[in-house]
Amino acid sequence: MTLIGHDAAWREWRDGLRGERMHHAWLLAGKKGLGKMRFALAAARELVAEPGIPQPEGQHPDILVLTNLPKDEKEEKKREDGKEYELARNIKIAQVREMQRRLTTRPTLGSKRAVIIDPADDMETGSSNALLKSLEEPPAGTFFLLVAHRPARLLPTIRSRCRLLRFPTLEDAAIARILGEQAPEADAGTRAAAVAAAAGSPGAALEFVAQDLAPVDALMRRIVETGDPDFTLRGKLAAEIGARPERARIAAVLDLARARLAQMAAAAPRGGLPAIVDAHADLVRLSAQAPTHNFDPGLLVMQIGGLLASTAAASSHADA
């Protein structure tokens, strides 16, 4: 997929490469689904490449990537067998320690090495504290690229040691073009709903199609319109999401609910804003907890539906 909206980030990155002293740590911040990891991999290859040294096409020995691993041996076996597998909730301190051991050796091909952490906001507390030591005293020739969807979750001391690269959201027309290229099987109505729900993230739009969220979106719209006083719509919402949804589906549903409330907030009268803002804040909290808490899926979906229902009167709330 051709990545759109990265021009400013590339200019800043390449200005840094051409400078006398390249900053040792970069924070790639922006909404999930904007292609920050793809940028990080491409930028790291530019960083470590040196004239006269052939570069491998596949995995590069001087680019280390820390990300969520399979959560246990059973899931690791699934990965080895080429099956879908469940990820661990956090990037573990053992992964950071192993990376630090690698940094005690020289780069394999040239004089530089890149470390990518994706997503950096998924590091557990011990991982963050361990990484901080490397950021404070980086080995010569080592550069860090931290991919973050929610940079506020990072330690302030980590953020302060990084040069910030912001990745903007895209216009609806750009997302529609990407959907036309990447999801041609989706009908026009589904693509339009995906664009509206994506809130500027092409990744979110593609996930909307992949997870078949159009029926979920329609039920969410009805809930915020009517308030669902008899819980009928919330029951249908739970059935549509499924009794045992995978973590990726739950994450996509939470993102969709947050996007819908954000759109409501933009159009709501001032008097209706407090209810929407409160519900959105609760959804943000649930989104942060969902990867690390063992929620009962049915209860979680009902909670999402309840938060949506609580905003039903907000769109027509008269200004005080």
Automatic annotation (TrEMBL):
This is DNA polymerase III subunit delta. GO terms for cellular component: DNA polymerase III complex. The lineage of its organism: Bacteria, Pseudomonadati, Pseudomonadota, Alphaproteobacteria, Sphingomonadales. One of its GO terms (biological process) is DNA-templated DNA replication. SUPFAM superfamilies: P-loop containing nucleoside triphosphate hydrolases. Gene3D superfamilies: P-loop containing nucleotide triphosphate hydrolases. Coiled coil: none annotated. It comes from Tsuneonella litorea. InterPro entries: DNA_Rep/Repair_Clamp_Loader (IPR050238), P-loop_NTPase (IPR027417).
